[in-house]
User: What shape does this take?
Amino acid sequence: MPAFDPAALTAAVRQDQRSPTFELLDWSVRRLSDQGIINPDGLLCVSGHGRDGDGVKPWSLVVKTLKDPGAAQAPAHLWYWQREALAAESGLLAALPGPIAAPRLYGVTRRENDAWIWMEHITDAAARRWSLEDYAFAARQIGRDSAAYALGMPLPTWPWLCRGHACAWAEGLPPHDAWQNPFVQRHFAPHLQARVLQLWAERAGFYAILDRLPQIFCHFDYQRRNLLRRARADGRPELVAVDWALCGIGPLGGELFSLVGSSALLLEWEPARLGELDDAAFAAYIAGLEEAGWQGS
Assistant: This one.
């Protein structure tokens, strides 16, 4: 576990507690998750006790570590390692249109080959395994959020925002050798290979269509593990999105790729019921767009 600078930790906890005089009494560190794809060891929970004029209170916050891969990366590249730290520093995530929120961000500590993001610790109030209704709720909230940009909210223009997300994903996973895999041979009919390769040959046309759609600010990774539910002050549920490492500019509707496809890919949803999830998420997303005032263009 990393050693934290007490001054930096105190500054972050004071923001979290909204108390400029809060003093730390003790703290401990534990790994919060080991399910990250790029940096599985990089999410830590720091917690302890402290006191101010209101007495002794428990506290906790999250530190996400980002590591320099060593190879040169263009800022708009899908896997640009500094993107989430830059998003935190820019104020972009603190000014989201809603209803989806990001954790409160308390600063970034930069070192020679890595960066630490200090942020709010969100406790997920939802069941670990989401129901179809949970996914529909998320899709509706994502639709309402997307509508803000489709209705004219200015898009961010930072050079480090991801662009060409669908193209980057597809080009990194060419299908030509897929049928050499024994698993694919057992579970996918041979005639599908011709259909997949035809789709691959026509992919440039699909990329062009995506570019012609209304463009919005996207999270690009709204799968179950990155979406947490909590209660707002008025008691209504709120969706909080974590892991903004892929955020960028993309087409309206593109967020459903990860909510549906990535959630099933990570086995957060039963793949055999993928069609059911796809139908429910699409309908809820459209409903969210319409609730926010978007009527198509």
User: Anything to note?
Assistant: The chain has nine helices and nine strands.
